[in-house]
Amino acid sequence: MFMSGCVSTALDVADKANQPINASLVSDMGRRKMTPADPILIRIFKDESELEIWKRNRSGRYALLKTFPMCRWSGKLGPKTRNGDRQAPEGFYQVSAGMMNPNSQYYLSFNLGYPNKLESAFGYSGEALMVHGACSSSGCFALTDAGVAEIYSVVREAIRGGQSSFQVQAFPFRMTPENMAKNRNSPNFDFWKNLKQGYDNFEVTGRPPKISYCGGRYVFDAEFEGGDPRDPLASCPPVLNSENGAVAARDDADARKTEALVASGATIEAHAYSDGGMHPSFRKLLQSRGAAALAKKTSLDEVPISRPEAALADPHSPSE
């Protein structure tokens, strides 16, 4: 029986979930003072169709390890709100070992944990929203089989190293003043400003922010009187710790730059997707090889994959 979302009944696992981390990536970790067992964090950007793996280094900060081009995501920029809307989610998620799926119909996958506590409070619905292979998406983030296998191997070793769960941050686009200015007229703009607070927090501190929910929004790195709020929609209780000055300064500076860009009239209007997106490298493959080729296991050397030292189709999934 086919489940909703992007995962199906179990297939033979074979050795796909136990593939070792690519040797060149292990070398990259060594150069960046990381080990395979060090904790990770994942960031996803819809508009750019990219997925980033960040890893904690010897200093205790997280650094970018590798950027993967996404083969497919469906829907439009904006959050997922209901089952069947074909939207890939946006927000902050926590993925535990039990959410890793070596039996996925889409080669390998992990569940994002949508809806999170805030989304559930809003009454948002949907299930089995995944990062997976097969280059086919209906509400999920899809890579090639080879791409998701490499990501899976890095995640697996971090979990084996003692990381009980890892944070996934899913954004509509890179949260720059330019992109905020381009998308200023979206009905999702206030929501995106809230996401940007978490984006800025990680960019400044180099550490995954602690996520809380109150006042119908995400709150980052806050310690509340009486502990974390239980009702994500209730007003926020008094905060015990002071605001991070560096994070606040960045947020204020970016807000001023966004306002200046809008006032100048020089901003370019945001691109309106009819349905989702695909990294430019895969669009080239789509033109030269056709959609069927993208659904197969694509070798990593067939698709350009960004590395930190470098400058950084029609859907056919029948569900969600």
Q: How does this model look, in words?
A:
Helix content is 27%, strand content 17%. It has 320 residues and is an alpha+beta fold. The chain has one domain (16-302): L,D-transpeptidase catalytic domain-like. A five-stranded mixed β-sheet has the order 3-2-1-10-5, sandwiched between helices. Strands 4-9-8-7-6 form a five-stranded mixed β-sheet. The chain has a two-stranded antiparallel sheet with strand order 11-12. A hairpin with a 7-residue loop joins strand 6 and strand 7. Helix 5 (189-205) packs across helix 6 (245-264). The two termini are 14 Å apart. Mean pLDDT is 85; it is low at 1-5, 7-13 and 297-320.
Short description:
Belongs to the YkuD family. The protein has helices at residues 23-31, 117-121, 145-160, 177-182, 189-205, 245-264, 280-289, 291-294; strands at 40-45, 50-56, 62-69, 72-73, 91-96, 100-101, 109-111, 130-132, 141-142, 165-171, 211-214, 217-220. It has 320 residues and is an alpha+beta fold.
Query: CATH top level?
Result: Mainly Beta
Spatial arrangement of strands, main beta sheet: 3-2-1-10-5
How many domain modules? 1
What's the story with the biggest beta sheet? 5 strands, mixed
Domain L,D-TPase catalytic: 40-171
Keywords: Cell shape, Cell wall biogenesis/degradation, Peptidoglycan synthesis, Transferase
InterPro entries: LD_TPept_cat_dom (IPR005490), Transpep_catalytic_dom (IPR038063)
Region (Disordered): 297-320
List the helices and strands and how they pair.
Elements: H1 23-31, E1 40-45, E2 50-56, E3 62-69, E4 72-73, E5 91-96, E6 100-101, E7 109-111, H2 117-121, E8 130-132, E9 141-142, H3 145-160, E10 165-171, H4 177-182, H5 189-205, E11 211-214, E12 217-220, H6 245-264, H7 280-289, H8 291-294
Parallel strand pairs: 1-10, 8-9
Antiparallel strand pairs: 1-2, 2-3, 4-9, 5-10, 6-7, 7-8, 11-12
